[in-house]
Specification:
By secondary structure, this protein is of the alpha+beta class. Helices cover about 30% and strands about 20% of the residues. A hairpin with a 2-residue loop joins strand 3 and strand 4.
Amino acid sequence: MKKRRPATPKALRRSAATTLAAFSAACGTSGSDATTARADDRGAPAVLTAADATSLALIKATLAAALGRATIDLGPGDLTTTSVVAVRPPRPTAPEDRSVATPTVFDLRLIDGDCVLVARSGAAAYPVEGLDCRPAD
């Protein structure tokens, strides 16, 4: 019986490129389009004018309703300088002590003068009533 050698990095890259090309052809996109983020193209990226407790509470309330969760734990980042809002997944419960869940990512966008959270995983938009934001630099 012949011993099988592990795949080389070059072979793995070639396999990944072939898979990406096949996926892109099936979707009708070019390879570069298939690897870009899915942020909604409507409006412009926005940042908060002030990251005070009221603004963060408005964002958390909107995200809680959007995700159907009672509590929202925001990921790191200063929302006065970045338009990316990451929501940490819920903590594992007993008897689990580990989770493979990943954060849910939203983009804060300014659409027709309103601050809107746009989900990257499907482009659903959630307006945030009463939130003050400005176009990102």
